[in-house]
Amino acid sequence: MKVKVFDENHEKDLENSINEFLKGRNCDIIDIKYQVAITMFGEDQIYCFSAMVIYNEEVG
Question: Does residue 54 sit in helix, strand or coil?
Answer without folding.
Answer: strand
